[in-house]
Structure formats: structure tokens, C-alpha cells
Amino acid sequence: MKTADPQPVRLIVAISSRALFDLSESHRVFETEGVHAYRAYQVAHESATLEPGVAFPLVRKLMNLNATLGERGRVEVILLSRNSSDTGLRVLTSAHRHGLDITRAAFTGGASPYRYVAAFGAHLFLSTDPNDVRLALSAGCAAATVLPAASTNRGADDGQVRIAFDGDAVLFSDDAERLYREEGLAVFNASESASAYEPLPGGPFKGLLVAIQQLQALFPPDDASPLRTALVTARGVPSHERVVRTLRAWDIRIDEALFLGGLSKANFLAAFDADIFFDDQEVHCDQARLHVATGHVPHGVANEVGRSG
């Protein structure tokens, strides 16, 4: 009996229209003149191709992986937009003019599109709307608010996709971060050392990392792989050991791990040439976006009411 061919590995990313394209002018019309003026503006400018937004370089590089993957795997990008199908026509047309092979979309006519993230099986949702991102995270989906870039550096233009993650409250739960905030560094380090052989619970981005790992497994494990990951964390010695053993227990490869011991992450992200960096703390995101595209993950103790930094 012939063995069935294995199903191709898939990475599915859902993205909002404002994260993909620069819709600042049309959004200004919507904010100042209302939905009817916005519709008229979009229809009148339908033949004008939209300029790339902050997440466009990442999306283009991800979709370019398909030529390398062949039949073994595929990266799919799905457009989730608060536009109606009428006003969203310009967005899809612009995507195709830019060479993005986006074939699936949901236009929700003003309603939050977060409920379609899981329906499409997306591993990641990128949006400029913090409320949509929080709803998606609450529903168990990896999601991040794409922040306006303060730099023209959009990652190295060599075809390799480089994705960087913070650890606690992103890849891992916020249990350890919560202890650090409540009890201080000495108690945190003692607890992490005592728990070094106990894997950390997974955070909201564990599923995304698993999906990326499955794609990476299709290529040799070296720096020539078209998809590369980094863990960039404020943790240092001795709390690093539990992280390393957790990833080992998950059977997940991280190409680069930077344990900074409290140093600012920004320059290290620039050195890594990250196409995007995900962090739960706004202060780190504000520093990172000076150098690389950044997604804020509004999850965990750092984002609770009355908390900061």
C-alpha cells in the first residue's frame, strides 16, 4: 500500500490592513469626517496603490519563503480588516500590486475581526488596534499590537526572516515575572534556580514558536536557514538555566539566546537585524521600535491595571 504523502507544514499569519499598509491619511478622514466620507475617499482613490506599512516588510519576507519551501510547507497571510468589502477592495488590490499572494480575507464592516483569527487557524494576529489584540489574546491566540516604527531599518534585506521574542509573558507564562515584581530579584533568582528542572508554563506565543520550529525543521539547522529566531530576555545568570531546560523539554530550537541581565534590548535587536520583536512591556517596546519593527503583547502582570513598565 502506498504511504500517503505528508501534509505540508503551514504557518498562518493574520494581519490587519493598517498593519500591512500605510492608511494614515484615509484613517484621518474616518476619524475627522466619519464613515461615509471614508468610503468616498477610498473609492475615489481606488486606483492609487497603498504604500507599505510597518509590518509589510515582514509579510513580504514571510511569503517569499514559499518559493524555497516548495511542496514541503507554506506561509499563508490572511487579511482581517474592519473595512467593508467595498472599502477593502483597495487594500486587496494594493496587496496584489505589491506581489503579495493573499487569497483569503475577512472584512467585518466596523466590527472587531478577532473572532476570525481562530476560525482561520492563524498562529499569529498582527494589528494596530490594541483592543482587537487584547480580544484575540483573551481568546487564546498569539497577538500583538504593531507599533509605529521610529526607524527606517526594517531588518536585513537578505531574504532571511529574523523573529525575536521576549521570554516571560510572551513565550512563557508571567508567573516568574510576577514573582520578580512582588518579591524582588534575589527571591526571583532563588526561585528560578530551585525550579531549574521544572519547565516554565507556556505563554501566549508558545504555539507560534512551535509552528515556526516545524518550518525550521525543513531546513538545515545552521545560520543559512531562511528562518531564524532569537530569545532576547532581561534574564541573566542564574535564571537562564530554567529557560534553557524549558526549551529543551519543549523540543524547540532557538537559534540565538541573549540573556542580558537587565541591559537594554534595543541595540541587541538592531545587531540581530530583527524583522520583528515581541515583548509584553511597553518600555522595552518603545526602545526597540527605534531600531526594529516591534509588536507589543498586552499580556501578563506588566499590563494589568495600575501596573507600568
- Work out the radius of gyration: 20 Å
Number of strands: 10
Order of secondary-structure elements: EHHHHEHEHEHEEHHHEHEHEHE
Mean pLDDT: 91
**Under the CATH scheme, which architecture of the largest domain would be assigned?**
3-Layer(aba) Sandwich
Strand content: 15-25%
What's the CATH first level of the largest domain?
Answer: Alpha Beta
> By CATH's scheme, which homologous superfamily of the largest domain applies?
HAD superfamily/HAD-like
Helix content: 25-40%
- Tally of separate domains: 2
Please outline the major beta sheet.
10 strands, mixed
* Broad shape: globular
Structural class designation: alpha/beta
The count of helical stretches stands at 13
Placed side by side, the strands forming the largest sheet appear as: 3-2-1-4-5-10-9-6-7-8
Layout: helices, strands, pairs:
Layout lengths: L8 E7 L1 H4 L3 H10 L1 H10 L11 H14 L3 E9 L3 H13 L6 E4 L7 H5 L4 E4 L2 H9 L4 E4 L14 E5 L9 H9 L1 H10 L11 H11 L10 E7 L6 H11 L5 E4 L6 H7 L3 E4 L2 H7 L5 E3 L13
Parallel strand pairs: 1-2, 1-4, 2-3, 4-5, 6-7, 6-9, 7-8, 9-10
Antiparallel strand pairs: 5-10
Helix pairs in contact: 2-3, 3-5, 8-9
Give an account of the 3D structure:
This protein is α/β, with parallel strands linked by helices and 309 residues long. The protein has two domains: 9-146, HAD superfamily/HAD-like (Rossmann fold, 3-Layer(aba) Sandwich); 161-303, Rossmann fold (3-Layer(aba) Sandwich). It is built from 13 helices and ten strands. Strands 3-2-1-4-5-10-9-6-7-8 form a ten-stranded mixed β-sheet, with helices on both faces.
